[in-house]
């Protein structure tokens, strides 16, 4: 048994990707066990490994952790990505929850029926550019610092970079009106651990293609 | 500026109820400003009070906090309802996320179309009795202690109590197969501050009027209108 955290999920982003980002940013090596068929999920359930019968599951520090937020909270706190006190933590939590809401929208895009896709996409872009990105642009503008909270790298910066890149995959010029987010993106991408994660061959996962959707749905149905 | 926390939401449970529970358990008096029409929400937005244009919003300790989980985490940590270390916190987080998933199902139930409502209710009951409650029953059984984590009242216990009471409204005997949860329900309901919260006039109205009153549904619709579009 190695000491490395072990991630159980399908071989795609989904709800596990933000965990991969956090571990990578913290410089923590991790292993992955991919669910490929429904039987793989059933086996984990029968083993009693899944507290609520669901993945993500991360084996870490002797615990079988489930629930994305719980896992993210634990990793962020353990590796000093959660601010220095309660108030910084509160800000980080607010920012991360906003990002999580936008991420839900992004995640659901690929599974929209064909006739709804365009409308959905328009709403997605609207929310990203009118509700969420302006908030983070303003935060950076107001304090003029390199990071969102407390002048040091936190989970909020890591998750924001993740979502900025995902949004650009949907619409390459989506950051056109956000100069500080653009420079933020460049800056955070250059942090050595993150730079490494962004290189080909890392454990970062590509976006889910529509053609892969059926095989993923089979695992979870 | 010290002073009581101030909650901004509609006069209904929705996503604010868990926050009310936490504050009440911690013995923290709070004020409420109810959103009664769309203009109230617009005003909050135009004043720049809502970080992501959404409620719940809680004014506390000089912050205008939004996002239910962020608010809950802050209050739990501040009032020692979040365990004594990182690992206890991890367990509390897992348990709270589980009960959240269950309560979100219940929260959306009034909005189910008429033809799928019964099926949806059956699913809620099934999830409660086969996915969620067994986990908490087992946790109590395995360590034999009075509370879910660390032998001490935490956010996890309060959140579970809230979920149990909500499901009992649909099916009063839902805990018949869960003796330890029944005991936990009794034990936590009898904590003085929680008893007070359950007995207080406003809480009872919100409780009895719950998600079934037309007014509550209207307030929730206002909330839903400004929520992210769900697929």
Automatic annotation (TrEMBL), chain A:
<protein>
    <recommendedName>
        <fullName>glutathione transferase</fullName>
        <ecNumber>2.5.1.18</ecNumber>
    </recommendedName>
</protein>
<keyword id="KW-0808">Transferase</keyword>
<feature type="domain" description="GST C-terminal">
    <location>
        <begin position="85"/>
        <end position="208"/>
    </location>
</feature>
<dbReference type="InterPro" id="IPR004046">
    <property type="entry name" value="GST_C"/>
</dbReference>
<dbReference type="Pfam" id="PF02798">
    <property type="entry name" value="GST_N"/>
</dbReference>
<dbReference type="InterPro" id="IPR036249">
    <property type="entry name" value="Thioredoxin-like_sf"/>
</dbReference>
<dbReference type="InterPro" id="IPR010987">
    <property type="entry name" value="Glutathione-S-Trfase_C-like"/>
</dbReference>
<comment type="similarity">
    <text>Belongs to the GST superfamily. Alpha family.</text>
</comment>
<dbReference type="GO" id="GO:0004364">
    <property type="term" value="F:glutathione transferase activity"/>
</dbReference>
<dbReference type="InterPro" id="IPR040079">
    <property type="entry name" value="Glutathione_S-Trfase"/>
</dbReference>
<dbReference type="GO" id="GO:0006749">
    <property type="term" value="P:glutathione metabolic process"/>
</dbReference>
<dbReference type="Pfam" id="PF14497">
    <property type="entry name" value="GST_C_3"/>
</dbReference>
<dbReference type="InterPro" id="IPR003080">
    <property type="entry name" value="GST_alpha"/>
</dbReference>
<feature type="domain" description="GST N-terminal">
    <location>
        <begin position="3"/>
        <end position="83"/>
    </location>
</feature>
<dbReference type="InterPro" id="IPR050213">
    <property type="entry name" value="GST_superfamily"/>
</dbReference>
<dbReference type="GO" id="GO:0006805">
    <property type="term" value="P:xenobiotic metabolic process"/>
</dbReference>
<dbReference type="InterPro" id="IPR004045">
    <property type="entry name" value="Glutathione_S-Trfase_N"/>
</dbReference>
<dbReference type="InterPro" id="IPR036282">
    <property type="entry name" value="Glutathione-S-Trfase_C_sf"/>
</dbReference>
UniProtKB/TrEMBL annotation, chain B:
<dbReference type="GO" id="GO:0006805">
    <property type="term" value="P:xenobiotic metabolic process"/>
</dbReference>
<dbReference type="InterPro" id="IPR010987">
    <property type="entry name" value="Glutathione-S-Trfase_C-like"/>
</dbReference>
<feature type="domain" description="GST N-terminal">
    <location>
        <begin position="3"/>
        <end position="83"/>
    </location>
</feature>
<dbReference type="InterPro" id="IPR036249">
    <property type="entry name" value="Thioredoxin-like_sf"/>
</dbReference>
<comment type="similarity">
    <text>Belongs to the GST superfamily. Alpha family.</text>
</comment>
<feature type="domain" description="GST C-terminal">
    <location>
        <begin position="85"/>
        <end position="231"/>
    </location>
</feature>
<dbReference type="GO" id="GO:0006749">
    <property type="term" value="P:glutathione metabolic process"/>
</dbReference>
<dbReference type="InterPro" id="IPR004045">
    <property type="entry name" value="Glutathione_S-Trfase_N"/>
</dbReference>
<dbReference type="InterPro" id="IPR004046">
    <property type="entry name" value="GST_C"/>
</dbReference>
<protein>
    <recommendedName>
        <fullName>Glutathione S-transferase</fullName>
        <ecNumber>2.5.1.18</ecNumber>
    </recommendedName>
</protein>
<dbReference type="InterPro" id="IPR036282">
    <property type="entry name" value="Glutathione-S-Trfase_C_sf"/>
</dbReference>
<dbReference type="InterPro" id="IPR040079">
    <property type="entry name" value="Glutathione_S-Trfase"/>
</dbReference>
<dbReference type="Pfam" id="PF02798">
    <property type="entry name" value="GST_N"/>
</dbReference>
<keyword id="KW-0808">Transferase</keyword>
<dbReference type="InterPro" id="IPR050213">
    <property type="entry name" value="GST_superfamily"/>
</dbReference>
<dbReference type="GO" id="GO:0004364">
    <property type="term" value="F:glutathione transferase activity"/>
</dbReference>
<dbReference type="InterPro" id="IPR003080">
    <property type="entry name" value="GST_alpha"/>
</dbReference>
<dbReference type="Pfam" id="PF00043">
    <property type="entry name" value="GST_C"/>
</dbReference>
